[in-house]
Design goal:
single chain; 242 residues; alpha/beta; TIM Barrel
Length: 242
């Protein structure tokens, strides 16, 4: 694809696994990785996406969904959720682009991750766009604690799952504040996922305070084409291991 900067870009779809506290593969998050077509230099994903206009973002979302569709049987067979991040422009596409709507309706295992930076997220039901999304799709709230909204967003009732931002986790992990937050979040959604989990000890600690699932460098990411290689369960008795 080409950006507005007229740079030819290669796009690869990567999956980051999310494992439950019982060690079961709960979900994978689909991420896009960009490199320059000519020199294969990595491109900062956030900055690149910021350069895309609404039409380009819709095209990217279509490409993501089309790629997932070729692997959908694996997700169905093993009852694995796949989450995809959407911003304001992509939200318009999932509501009004007939092709994208059709693809999403054909793959009910997909969850749409709404980032905390989504406009007026804490307005809850007063946010018309968010309300329309919640009526049609199953939503997750991503990067909670990154500073752009507060508990009202999670308490809106719109989100099946809340993902706690890794920076927030790293800063507050050892505090009562973090434990209390997890408890409060679980009052408003079905599942709480913590991002940024890098060690077995962190996995154990989070499981012990009631976190439902974990994501981070403790678990290896894979290209979408290799998603079926993810272990559907892992050993969780880490306490005597290094």
């Amino acid at each position: 694809m080409d950006s507005r900067l007229n740079i030819a870009v290669d796009c690869t779809f990567i999956c980051e696994p999310v494992y439950s506290k019982k060690g079961e593969l709960f979900a994978v998050e689909l991420l896009s990785r960009f490199t320059t077509d000519s020199f294969k230099m990595p491109i900062n994903t956030e900055r690149f996406l910021h350069q895309l206009n609404a039409k380009m973002k819709a095209e990217l979302l279509y490409e993501q969904l089309f790629a997932v569709a070729t692997h959908q049987q694996w997700f169905i067979d093993y009852q694995i959720i796949l989450s995809i991040n959407i911003d304001f422009d992509m939200a318009q596409a999932v509501l009004y682009d007939k092709v994208i709507i059709s693809l999403l309706e054909s793959m009910p295992f997909i969850r749409l991750e709404v980032m905390e930076s989504f406009p007026n997220l804490s307005d809850g039901p007063k946010n018309t766009l968010l309300s329309k999304l919640a009526e049609r799709y199953t939503l997750w709230l991503d990067d909670f604690g990154s500073g752009n909204s507060h508990l009202a967003a999670a308490a809106s009732g719109f989100f099946e799952c809340v993902k706690v931002d890794k920076q927030f986790y790293w800063q507050w992990a050892e505090s009562v504040t973090f434990d209390n937050l997890v408890t409060r979040l679980r009052d408003h959604c079905q599942s709480v996922i913590v991002e940024g989990v890098e060690t077995r000890q962190q996995f154990i600690q989070l499981a012990n305070i009631g976190v439902d699932a974990m994501q981070g460098y403790l678990f290896n990411a894979l290209p979408l084409n290799d998603a079926k290689r993810f272990p559907v369960s892992i050993e969780t008795n880490f306490s005597r291991k290094t």
